[in-house]
Every structure is written in C-alpha cells, then in structure tokens.
Amino acid sequence: MTPHLFCLVSQRDDLSLLPALADAGVDGFQVRDKSLATAALVALTRAVVAAVRPAGAVVVVNDRLDVALAAGADGVHLGADDLAVADARRLAPGLVIGATCRSRAEVVTAAGAGADYAGFGPVFASASKAGLPLPLGVPAVADAAGSLPLVAIGGITAATAGEVRAAGAQGVAVIGAIWRQPDPVGAAKELVAAVA
Question: Least buried of 30, 93, 129, 185, by fewest C-beta within 10 Å?
Fold first, then answer.
C-alpha cells in the first residue's frame, strides 16, 4: 500500500514527535539524511521504525537499500543515481521500492523495473533540497498518473495537497509543511485531511 502522506525525517527533526505524527494519520515516513555515516543512519532508521510502526506507518530509507535491510525498514526510495530499481527488486523482493521520477516516461520505466510507487516532482518550488529542476506543475502529475501510484513531492502544502491528489497522485511527501510549522502535529492533521 502506498502511503497517502509521507513525512521525510532527518536527525535534525524532533523525533519525539514521531509517534504523535503517526497517530495523527501520517502513514509513511522516509528517512533521508545524507550527512550521516552508515551506522548513524541505521540507528536513526531503527528509531523511526520503533516510533511509528505501532501506528502501522510505513518506513522507507532514501537511497540506501543496505540501511533499509539492516534497520528492518519497510522499503527504500531510489533516485536516478542510486542502485537500479531492478537490482533492488532482485536483492529485496519483499521490500517496498520507490523511484524518483520527473516524467511519464520515467514512471513507465520504473514500473517496468519493479518499483511499487514513483516519487514525482518537484511539483512546486521547494527550499528543502538544493539543485532541484524547475517545478513540474500539477498538469505533469495528471500526465504521469496511471502506470504506478504517484507520491507527489516538492513544495506541497495543506492548501495544495488536495489539488495534487485530484490530479492523480496517490499521495504526497512533505518536509517543510510539517517540520517548519509552529505546530508540526497540527500541520500534519491538516495535511491528512487534505489528502483523505
């Protein structure tokens, strides 16, 4: 099952809020922290799994199949420069595998390689990651929908999440829309309502 709302998590975030976020209805968490050494990333992933799995949330690890396997996560999210989706599927047939995609053609390719969902974006401008391409826009979501469940990412807010879902995204992934808000749990509840 592809989550309706992925919250990206790093060591900089307030991990004590994770159980409350999961209880509020955040049904997916992606551990993404490129600054951590492998052992620390495994420890962070284990902490996230322990915090949110009781609520039934899915945990995937960005880029690192080895960390996902070592930490007992549910899956891995792979970018264009990471391990190939087909290789990850062969090595870990039971894991959820997501693939970063920026066009319908890339979504179709990811589906053929064995991905379970496509992380699609950036849909809107985002300040959470440097070096992103120009925003794709909501029409690109509609164009790419159909081959794989899409998880839209990039500048998504509670105000735009419903529009993205209506365009064909199965779910959305956020960072700032939760972690940069004065009340992250309240913000998560608004997002959960918007993607319902």
Answer: 93
| pLDDT at position 6 over 80 | yes
Residue 67 predicted with pLDDT over 90? yes
Query: What gap in Å lies between CA 80 and CA 192, rounded to an integer?
Result: 29
Number of helices (H) and strands (E) in the chain: give both, helices first: 9, 8
* Dist CA 14 CA 116 (whole Å): 29
β pairing state of 117-120 and 58-62: unpaired
Element (H, E) at 96: strand 96-101
- Decide: 61 and 92 in contact? Cβ < 8 Å: no
Distance CA 150, CA 141 (A): 8
**pLDDT 10s digits, 137-187:** 999 999 999 999 999 999 999 999 999 999 999 999 999 999 999 999 999
Q: Which CATH topology does 5-195 take?
A: TIM Barrel (3.20.20)
**Which DSSP string corresponds to 121-165?**
--SS--SSSTT------HHHHHHHTTSS-EEEESS--HHHHHHHH
Annotated binding site for Mg(2+): 63, 82
